[in-house]
Amino acid sequence: MLALFARQFVLRERKAMDGEWFTRLTSNDFLGAFGNPTRVEASIGKLYQEEGLATAFEWMDNNLIPLFRKQVAAKR
User: Which DSSP symbol is given to 47?
Assistant: First the structure.
């Protein structure tokens, strides 16, 4: 679920596949900012099972992406 979201996000933002962005967005280091990385992924999977793909993607967009954008901006 996370990998599919990350690929779509990277393609939308970068207009091409960017392996560095994909890796950073799906890494345990990044997910650790939200708690145990395995639990974060499990909660996304549970949300998908209970409420569907759109809701899971919306949660990731609202929760993961703001921090990711902040980290990308700080790296520049």
Answer: H
